[in-house]
Amino acid sequence: MADIQLHAMLRSIRGKVGDVVFKKRGDKLYISRRPDFSKRKLSAAQKESIARFRAAVRYAQEVLNDPESRRPFALAAEKNGRTVYNTIIAEHLRRA
Question: What is the gyration radius of the CA atoms in the chain, in angstroms?
């Protein structure tokens, strides 16, 4: 794999441009082709897992918009060194 030094402005690029995806992991930037999921067939367990995660994301969005509901998760996130969003998602998935 090639190791390329990018201009400072390009180091922060991420996302999709056409069929190319820019990903940043740690201090490294990875460029790859956009994955093709058109022929993927999901099992029943995978569909259930996706549905559970979607529900957790909706719940997290609701909680983040309500300061009273957000407060206990913010304290737990600070204690565990995680983001509030990830703490809410994890808690919802544990309960589901």
Answer: 18
pLDDT digits (tens, 9 = 90+) for 62-77: 999 999 999 999 999 9
pTM: 0.65
Both 50 and 74 in one domain: the answer is: yes
Q: How many domains does the chain have?
A: 2
Closest CA relative to residue 3, chosen from 33, 27, 34, 19: 27
Domain range for 82: 44-95
What's the full length of the chain, in residues?
A: 96
Give yes or no for a contact between 14 and 23, defined as CB atoms under 8 angstroms apart. yes
Q: Find out whether 60 and 85 touch, Cβ atoms under 8 Å.
A: yes
